[in-house]
């Protein structure tokens, strides 16, 4: 399984042209409602900030970035990602929607964020943390660029607890998803990688202590759709 940044970036460059389409097919469009729920929490956490600065880490093709811009009208948004291919599609999408004055993209890894300490009122990571080549370093870097009391929202896939849901989940993720991924993107490995990263991603009882170790406080863990996806919410102490 690819773990270094260059390999991961190349893989996302390869699937970038079909990423959005496949995302919606593979999740039966449920990803849209997961994103909406996460963005709603982000917005609520920023209720007292008039012009928030928000960092979308591993922004990919900017689906969440756009949703944040539409939902939080006065926000200045900064998207970072390591894949040129994903960023290019994100930039085109944002330009088509006329949002380019509010969203700035740059190529940067979560483990080495190109912004100064205490810059952002909030950071958002959708389906990105499990791809970080150094998860702890990425979470520490996000902590560094957040302002004190700034909010971190993470949206991430997870393995469901319930045995029956888990059985269907395994059938779908291990057999059907790589097949559809191969047919649409031509890259079965990338979609096998997706399944492996979800499998390897820690459950909340391991992930929450990592957030604490990185300095975050007021942690929340919200399960969505039988635990297939989770929102983690935290604050910089
Ligand atoms: C599954 S996509 C998610 C994209 C987007 N956030 C979304 O919600 O659709 C994962 C993204 O993480 C990016 N990525 C992987 N490792 C990264 C890292 N270490 N730092 C920044 N971005 C990374 C990939 O290039 C890819 O665009």
Topology:
Blueprint: H1 5-26, H2 30-45, E1 53-57, H3 63-71, E2 76-81, H4 84-96, E3 103-107, E4 120-126, H5 135-145, E5 146-157, H6 163-185, H7 188-200, H8 204-213, E6 216-224, E7 229-236
Parallel strand pairs: 1-2, 1-4, 2-3, 4-5
Antiparallel strand pairs: 5-7, 6-7
Helix pairs in contact: 1-4, 1-6, 2-3, 6-7
The structure holds S-adenosylmethionine (SAM).
S-adenosylmethionine is lined by residues 5, 8-9, 12, 58-60, 63-64, 81-83, 86, 109-111, 126-128, 131-133.
Q: Could you explain how this protein is built, in words?
A:
By secondary structure, the protein is of the alpha/beta class. It has one domain (27-159, 201-236): Vaccinia Virus protein VP39 (Rossmann fold). The chain has 8 helices and 7 strands, in the order ααβαβαββαβαααββ. The chain has helices at residues 5-26, 30-45, 63-71, 84-96, 135-145, 163-185, 188-200, 204-213; strands spanning 53-57, 76-81, 103-107, 120-126, 146-157, 216-224, 229-236. Helix 1 (5-26) packs across helix 4, helix 2 (30-45) packs across helix 3 and helix 6 packs antiparallel against helix 7. The longest helix has 23 residues, at 163-185. The structure holds S-adenosylmethionine (SAM). Residues 5, 8-9, 12, 58-60, 63-64, 81-83, 86, 109-111, 126-128, 131-133 line the site of S-adenosylmethionine.
């Amino acid at each position: 399984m690819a773990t270094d940044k260059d390999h991961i970036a190349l893989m996302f460059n390869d699937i970038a042209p079909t990423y959005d389409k496949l995302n919606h097919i593979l999740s039966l469009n449920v990803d849209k409602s997961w994103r909406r729920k996460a963005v709603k929490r982000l917005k609520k956490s920023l209720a007292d900030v008039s012009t928030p600065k928000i960092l979308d880490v591993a922004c990919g093709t900017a689906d969440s970035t756009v949703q944040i811009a539409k939902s939080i009208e006065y926000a200045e948004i900064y998207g970072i990602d390591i894949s040129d291919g994903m960023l290019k599609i994100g930039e085109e999408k944002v330009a088509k929607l006329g949002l380019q004055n509010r969203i700035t993209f740059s190529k940067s890894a979560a483990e080495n964020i190109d912004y100064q300490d205490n810059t952002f009122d909030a950071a958002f990571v959708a389906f990105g943390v499990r791809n970080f080549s150094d998860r702890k370093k990425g979470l520490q870097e996000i902590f560094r660029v957040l302002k004190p009391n700034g909010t971190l929202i993470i949206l991430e896939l997870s393995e469901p607890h319930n045995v029956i849901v888990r059985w269907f989940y395994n059938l779908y993720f291990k057999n059907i998803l790589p097949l559809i991924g191969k047919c649409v993107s031509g890259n079965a490995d990338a979609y096998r990688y997706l399944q492996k990263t979800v499998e390897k991603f820690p459950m909340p009882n391991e992930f929450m202590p990592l957030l604490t170790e990185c300095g975050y406080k007021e942690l929340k863990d919200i399960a969505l759709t039988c635990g297939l996806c989770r929102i983690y919410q935290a604050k910089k102490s």
